[in-house]
Design brief:
Elements (H helix, E strand, L loop, with lengths): L5 E7 L4 E8 L1 H10 L3 H18 L6 E8 L4 E9 L3 E8 L9 H6 L1 E8 L4 E8 L5 H13 L3 E7 L4 E8 L10 H14 L11 H9 L4 E3 L3 E2 L1 E2 L5 H11 L1 H10 L2 E5 L6 E5 H9 L11
Parallel strand pairs: 5-12
Antiparallel strand pairs: 1-2, 1-10, 1-11, 2-9, 3-4, 3-6, 4-5, 6-7, 8-9, 13-14
Length: 294
């Protein structure tokens, strides 16, 4: 069956383990269709979007998480953003002339930048991690290991029109420190089972998936949270983009064209401004603090 776009948490009764299952379908397809990305790009971007969702679902405050990969090769930039209420968006910039079907070399040479924005305190937290693994799931595990110091295990599978994944994480529980060796071995076995999941397994309901993996465990499965694509672009943001170009450059454009076109880099929507709209933009004071593409 097809899963709806959602993130659903679960917790083990007797082990200091918690987990999450995430599915991206309609939101994922909306993003890749807006840009008509080639398959090798939209598969990786889908994995990035899912990883960002996993991080954002843990936010305890209003804000957003951004995952960004920068490389010096054919993949120039890949960005995935997810807000605390699980609104996602993403984009990729790449060299179309030299794009190959294998991005592993690019991923090995680049770096992963994780930015967590707290809208309530207006503070940002950023981690930069050298990419030593080829898979996004492994990158996410490295982030948790280096920046959060919580053992975390991630599996992500991208299909043609959907991306799904599961995360398991040990909880910072005092009782976990008192576990005997047998119980520690059991935790390792439970995480190992997850790595045997394949694409078809994620087409099961989440309850059936957990039953298939952990029928011998008591698990609480919490209600799912919906995920959707959302772009914050607006006429006001695009007016600021026009203003930032400067009146001289805009006048040069209008001398050759009837309108100035500004395209949102995330949703690919084109905003058009004629000479009267431009006159209005430059006759009003600058909007302090306004940025494009947040």
């Amino acid at each position: 069956m097809n899963q709806v776009d959602s993130a659903q948490n679960f917790i083990f009764h007797k082990q200091a383990l918690r987990g999450m299952i995430v599915h991206l379908n309609e939101s994922y397809n909306t993003i890749i269709q807006q840009h008509h990305y080639p398959e090798v790009i939209h598969k990786r971007l889908g994995e990035m979007l899912l990883a960002t969702t996993m991080l954002s679902s843990a936010l305890k405050y209003q804000g957003q998480v951004t995952l960004q990969i920068q490389t010096q090769s054919q993949l120039k930039l890949m960005v995935a953003k997810c807000s605390h209420d699980l609104n996602i968006r993403g984009l990729a910039q790449f060299n179309e002339d030299s794009l190959s079907m294998d991005l592993n070399d690019d991923f090995n040479r680049g770096e992963l930048i994780v930015t967590i924005e707290n809208s309530e305190t207006q503070k940002n937290y950023q981690s930069m991690i050298a990419i030593e693994q080829q898979e996004v799931a492994q990158m996410l595990e490295s982030y948790f290991d280096q920046s959060v110091q919580l053992p975390t295990y991630v599996v992500i599978h991208a299909r043609e029109n959907a991306v799904s994944g599961m995360l398991l994480q040990t909880m910072p529980d005092v009782q976990a420190e008192q576990n005997d060796l047998a119980e520690n071995d059991l935790v390792q076995e439970l995480t190992a089972r997850m790595y045997h999941l394949n694409q078809s397994d994620f087409q099961l309901t989440n309850a059936d998936l957990l039953d298939k993996l952990y029928s011998d465990q008591a698990i609480d499965l919490y209600p799912p949270t919906a995920i959707k694509f959302s772009c914050p672009c607006s006429i006001e943001r695009m007016e600021e983009a026009v203003r930032m170009l400067g009146k001289a450059e805009i006048d040069d454009i209008l001398a050759k064209n009837k309108t100035v076109s500004v395209t949102c880099e995330f949703c690919n929507y084109i905003y058009e401004f004629d000479k009267y709209a431009v006159l209005e933009i430059f006759s009003t004071p600058e909007n302090e603090g306004t940025t494009v593409g947040n």
